[in-house]
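Worked Example 4.2. Consider the chain below.
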Amino acid sequence: MASVLKSIVQRTVAGHFPRISALHASSVFYRLTLAFSLLFLTALSGFVFLGMTSNLLGSRELQYCLLGMLVISLGSYAILKEIARGILNIEARLTGRNSAEPVLSCLSTGESELSSIARLTEEMATNLEQVRAALSCRNMELQGIRELSRSDVVFADPREFLNLAMEKAMLATSAVGGVVLLIPGGEGESADETCVRSMGRSFLVDAVGLQGVSEYARDICAHLPQGILLEQRDPLFQRFFTRDCKAVAMVPFSLGKGQEAVVVLAAGAGQSWDGAILSFLSALFQTTSRSFKMSELWEREQETSRELYAVLNMLRIITTAQEAGVFSAIASALFDLFPAQWLGLAYFDPLAGELRLAQNVHRNTGSRLDETVVLERSSSLFQRAIDLMGRLDCHDLEHEPNCSERMIFSGLGLRSCMIHSLDLNGRIIGSICLGYETVDAFGTRDKKYFSMFASGISIALEQGRLLAREKRRSSELEILNRVGVALTSSAFDIKRVLHQIVEMVVQVLGTEMGAVMLLDQDVLNIQAVTGCAGKNLEGMQIQLGEGLCGWVATTGDAVINHDAVASSHGLSEFDERAGIITRNVLCIPMISNGRVIGVFLLANKQGRFTDDDYRTLKAVAASTAIALENNRLYFEMARLVEKERLIRTIFQKYVPKEIVNNILEKDEHEQMTIGERKMITVFNIDIRGYSEMSKISATEEVVEVLNYFYMKMGSIILRNKGMVDKYLGDGFLAIFGAPVATKNPALDAVFAAIEMTQTIKEVSRKAVERFGIPLRIGISLNTGEAIVGNIGFDRKMEYTAIGDVVNETFRLQELTREKSDLILIGESTYQRVKPYVLVKPWGKRAIDNSGGEMMVYEVIARREFASPILTNPAKEAEIQQVH
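Applying the procedure from the previous section yields the following structure tokens:
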């Protein structure tokens, strides 16, 4: 047991002694190890002493006790070691040493771990206090920004909002003073005002510093949007700021509406500012800029809303106001929108050339001028606005002493006004005026809205005018309808119709007298008259240029005369004959096709003749003129129709229907033209046996058979779209392809010829029955260009064809005498019909004495009818030679 205990102690001491010897005296582990060693040695010494005194040194019990004490000591030592390790780890974390280093490594500073922990704890407490102060400052800054962003700058005074921003900035930064300076060139404040806000202690070097910083702010805004922090060592600081401030922060921001500014805050002598302060101020005043921007946007939105309200109000006026209430609705809308006391509306009368102040109203009293005022256009402000085709601003009416509205404005107490022309699609309506009792009462917004509103007013007035015109049109249509009924029911009794028209117009327009006069040569004859002394005027005649009616008939101009007694164009001739006095008169010319055919006269209306009366009578006069002209044209047309019918009836017996239509559709000059070049087929037929029949029979009997022949053969020509040109005694000449072109004139002619060879048998039987002489025919056809048209002179013309093709056809006719019922065609005709007919070529034949030759073909039959027709064996033999 003693040997075991000895070996354990030796190993423990041997294992830790080097480390213990290496520890610094101030080390916690060193001290714990030293204390433990002292306690262990004391206990061990006590046991040894007890064993020696009690003779138990060699006993087994003492050895067990020592062994137990040793085990307990080792366990305690391990616990102490872990405690020391934990302390060292804490100290390592606080000092930043690597915790992986040996726990028992010595400290290079000679300071104990507990002292180091205490020192570091104190440093941490100091740092935490600084962090708390910084967080408190940041919290105050954030709180300031939050409160500023929550502030409703839209409804607040901008100056108060700027004060709030300055208070938050100075509170968060503990600044000793601050100012807000305008950047030169903005529009927000007057040009003379530079410093718009100032708080706390003054730190600028009088006016020099104020002006210098304001000018320097422009560069800051352009190049340093986040701002700048100036300290005492900066040269600019020494020029502009006092010595009792340590630092200055300058941050640009926007006040809205294009105005830029810069905020300048000063730190006291005991303060230290850094970039964090500048960042806070930049964020705070950027929030301020956004708030002003929101305020500006809100103002624009309100402006847009007001404009929309004005537009909608005007649309309401346009769509709902009736004629009588248009001006009242306009006045109500304008008084709601503008600071005006009086509204006046002047109309331009194009007929009279006058500008009349027709409607007006006062905002407070609702009073109006008693009657329409005719304005002197040369000096009228209303006319000046019309000449400008826009808005006229009169800031002080005292500066317009010569205007024609001076008495009106003076009586109403107006000192300023704005007048705008009213036009629609280039047509002048008049002008409108808003007046107020103070000088320069209307701002930029008012002028803008007024110009915008003027277009709507023009539309509204035009809407009212259209409504009035529609009412007038209804009255006019009623009159015209009644006139139309009278005209249609009495189409041939013009005099009675005119009496009915005059009576209706007099009744509708409320005049004492009315008359219609028609022009015959140079004399106006009264055709219808009604009203006072009307019977005395019946049959009266007025020479052109004589009196009012003669002047109107001569010039074609209408006359409205409100004082016929004093006028040079009076009705003295009427007054003398009728025994009346004409007070006023309205006379309208009746014009047809640009020619005056009469005049329509109305006289003595209660009151004055108006523009509506003029338009109504003008419409009635025009309708009456049209009715008279239509009546004349009706009879003229009836005469022409009867004439054309007679012409057609007579001439269709001599020429085809197409020729008749052509003659009737063209004028005399066109009928006299030479003609036109066309591709035609000339058809010549000659009768064989006619001469023998003429010798043995009477002329009348021969003509009867000849007419029967012409009827049969001519019908075939017409049925196949041809035209009989002229009769040749024992034959006739026909044309195919003129005057109306057909698809294939040559084929039409050949088919007609084939049909004639069948029809001649019937005609021949009639001749045999009467005279005992059979008739045969020969037909020649040729195709080519010819001049076709009306040939002759003005007293005798004939539609015919001229050209070589006609001459060649006659020469070809001589060859047909070789056989009976023979059809011969030329080469040109053959090329156009060869797919449809069977022919027999004759070869080239001489057709004149000059040696000219032509390829000649004999037409046998139509191809589709060849087999049924050719039953004669001789004909069948000829078929073998047919192409």
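The radius of gyration is 64 Å. The chain has a mean pLDDT of 77. Compare this with Example 4.1 before moving on.
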